[in-house]
Amino acid sequence: MIPARGGSKRIPRKNIKAFGGLPMIAWSIRAAIQSQCFDRLIVSTDDEEIAAVAKEHGADVPFERPANLSDDHTGTIPVIAHAIDWQNLHGPAATQVCCIYATAPFVQAADLQRGLQALQSTDADYAFSVTSYAFPIQRAIRITAEQRVEMFQPEHFNTRSQDLAEAWHDAGQFYWGQAQAWLEGKPLFSQGSAPVPLPRHRVQDIDTPEDWERAEWMFKAMQHANKTTPPKAND
């Protein structure tokens, strides 16, 4: 399931805006198809143009997402649950379902395969992409109203970085889940979820124009690296 509503405000038409030579959503569709993990690939959207682009690149758009699930405040879980309900009424019942974000051009087929394996092998409710913070969160600071700084956890001012626990965050690419977990609205960030670690250089939220520009530079660098043949070692 790829959720892709049409009302993006900070980056208008973000889901189908050209990125790396293709509409943004096409990268998610491509990775899903290449992974060979899925019996069906559905895009849930309220937008006719997004639906047309999704179909052009190989996804199904068998229904129009209801208006009450297409506003700024609707979370991911109700959207996926709606799509599962639709599938269960109109075809073979869904058992394991992956939500792939439409704005995840760095998602890779192999990562989706690892996610499915994690979901199945750990008997988890969910398995989703995560990446590590580059800086220890225990030593984070905030700027006060008086334009001064203070630590969130001052007790760690003198703690060495290597002695602090590594922290991780949602990579915002994909979320495998048992169909029943989606339908019951079980929380994603819980003991019932398994992590699928990704390297930091393949993770970038795309919510603002600045994010978009950074993602384009990262994408170009990855494409260049993939095309470059490593030099042979000297004899």
Structural write-up:
32% of the residues lie in helices and 18% in strands. The protein is α/β, with parallel strands linked by helices and 235 residues long. The strands form four sheets. The chain has a four-stranded mixed beta sheet with strand order 5-9-6-10, sandwiched between helices. Strands 1-4 form a two-stranded parallel ribbon. It has a two-stranded antiparallel ribbon with strand order 2-3. A hairpin with a 5-residue loop joins strand 7 and strand 8. The protein starts with a strand and ends in an 8-residue tail after the last helix.
What's the quick description here?
The protein has six helices and ten strands. It is an alpha/beta fold and 235 residues long.
Q: Name the shape in a single word.
A: globular
The number of helical runs is 6
Rg, alpha carbons? 20 Å
* Rounded average pLDDT: 94
Structural class: alpha/beta
